[in-house]
TrEMBL record:
Zn(2+) binds at C29, C215, H240, E244. It comes from the Bacteria. Residues 16-324 form the tRNA synthetases class I catalytic domain. A motif ('HIGH' region) lies at residues 31-41. It is found in: Cytoplasm. The keyword ATP-binding applies. HAMAP family: Cys_tRNA_synth. This is Cysteine--tRNA ligase. The gene is cysS. Its main location: cytoplasm. GO terms for cellular component: cytosol. It comes from Phreatobacter aquaticus.
Length: 461
């Protein structure tokens, strides 16, 4: 079956035809390393790792270049390092190391190349010079700004009305801008804690690049002026990816930057938007170390993420992780002593349909049910699951079983909710105290979908 991918640029699912099938090129926006990656950040990492694996299976391991950048130059980084009293490099190196450890535990391959923004300053300056020379950018008060009106097709990726783009871009009002939509390519570094380099375009004041120009420079350096696939989260479509398109196509006079643009959907936790104020913000490492009473193995998180198609919103729940754990244990135990076969055609067909992971998982269940254990093991391997870790997963399960009796906790919480609904507050308080004695902290709230009272829990720290 031909590989079909949904293209944000065309708003359609099209057959993927690489520019050169001996050199398939993919760029994905990676982390800004000022803070530890949360579970939402894991979604594009896992999804594009799966696509990387599928492309290598289809075209050959040596025929695919996957670039995922590290943004180690950003105003949030500067601010965080200054607040902590450490150097920018100390902050970014430590955060990047923790990012790699966390996503490695999820079963992801390392990309072919992992460019860092700070290693590509000269490419960023060269793009600024090209854009100014072509009339698509201008210098004002030590800034280099992209002139949005100079590009009639601006907005072609996000397809948003001008008013929406102005609002979505959180436009900075600045007297030196010719148009309110113009965005920064280069800016002066004036504060002591701001990093700076010799500026392009005849600017005497040292400066630093804007965020958008960084990805244009890194993709150009490693993949060329036009490449096959560009990916990232749906929140990056505008303004980041829209501005990347503008910079790259106007600098090189091309019609497109990438032929296919792919974006994964949002993630929420237990029915609510993830946020620190709601107390449901969770990092990848916290899940691996212990969350809601359990330390969750990386492959459990991987399978849980794949249960939902990458373009759909995903609701991250404890129940879904528990189901994934049980499923993986069954598959690993069944395949532990068999040799892996080739990934079955049914699996390849599912993944070739715009990475239809729910359908692929159904195929895995079918292989297990039919007793095709060699095919199951081969399919698991292609999707990034290592059946050789069956012993580790079982050991983690045994350890988890010794921690907290989640069924008992859920029953007590349900009884407490019933008592509160009946206004039996004495019983409600008694159950709360019983849970506290078990080392369980409760958080009361409302179900955002129904408005009904609900309670979540975690192991008391």
């Amino acid at each position: 079956m031909a590989l079909k991918l949904y293209n944000t640029l065309t708003r359609s699912k099209d057959v993927f035809v690489p520019i050169d099938d001996t050199n398939v090129r993919m760029y994905v926006c990676g982390p800004t390393v000022y803070d530890d990656a949360h579970i939402g950040n894991a979604r594009p990492v896992i999804m594009f790792d799966l696509l990387f694996r599928l492309l290598r299976h289809t075209y050959g391991e040596g025929a695919v270049t996957y670039a995922r950048n590290i943004t180690d130059l950003d105003d949030k980084i500067n601010k965080r390092a200054y607040e902590r009293g450490i150097t920018i490099k100390q902050l970014t190196e430590g955060t990047a190391a923790r990012f790699h450890a966390a996503i490695d535990a999820l079963g992801n391959l390392r990309p072919t190349v992992e460019p860092r923004a700070t290693d590509h300053i000269e490419e960023m300056k060269a793009l600024c010079e090209k854009l100014v020379a072509a009339g698509h950018a201008y210098v004002a008060e030590d800034h280099v700004l992209f002139s949005v009106p100079s590009m009639p097709s601006y907005g072609g990726l996000s397809k948003r009305p001008l008013d929406d783009m102005i609002a979505g871009a959180r436009v900075d009002v600045a007297p030196y801008k010719r148009s309110e939509m113009d965005f920064v390519l280069w800016k002066p570094s004036v504060e002591a804690h701001e990093p700076g380099w010799p500026s392009p375009c005849g600017i005497a004041q040292p400066g630093r690049p804007g965020w958008h120009i960084e990805c244009s420079a890194m993709s150009w350096k490693h993949l060329g002026e036009v490449f096959d696939i560009h990916g990232g989260g749906i929140d990056l479509v505008f303004p980041h990816h829209e501005n990347e398109v503008a910079q790259t196509t106007c600098a090189f006079g091309t019609h497109v930057m990438a032929n296919v643009w792919m974006h994964n959907g949002f993630l929420q936790v237990e029915g609510e938007k993830m946020s620190k104020s709601l107390g449901n913000f969770v990092t990848i490492q916290e899940l691996l170390d212990g969350w809601q009473g359990k330390a969750w193995p990386g492959e459990v998180l991987r399978l849980t993420m794949m249960k939902t198609h990458y373009r759909q919103p995903i609701d991250w729940t404890v129940r879904a992780m528990e189901e994934s754990w049980k499923t993986l244990q069954g598959w690993y135990r069944a395949t532990e002593t068999v040799e892996a076969g080739a990934p079955p055609a049914g699996l390849i067909e599912a993944l070739s349909d715009d990475l239809n992971t729910p359908k692929a998982i159904a195929e895995l269940h079918g292989l297990d049910k039919r007793g095709d254990l060699a095919g199951l093991k081969g399919a698991l391997a292609l999707m990034g699951f290592d059946a050789a870790r069956a012993g580790e997963l079982s050991a983690a399960s045994d350890q988890e079983a010794d921690m907290k009796d989640t069924d008992r906790i859920d029953d007590l919480i349900a009884a407490r909710l019933a008592a509160r609904k009946a206004k039996d507050f004495a019983e409600s308080d008694r159950i709360r105290d019983e849970l506290a004695a078990m080392g369980i902290a409760l958080k009361d709230g409302k179900d955002p979908a129904t408005g009904e009272p609900m309670t979540t829990w975690e192991v008391a720290r």
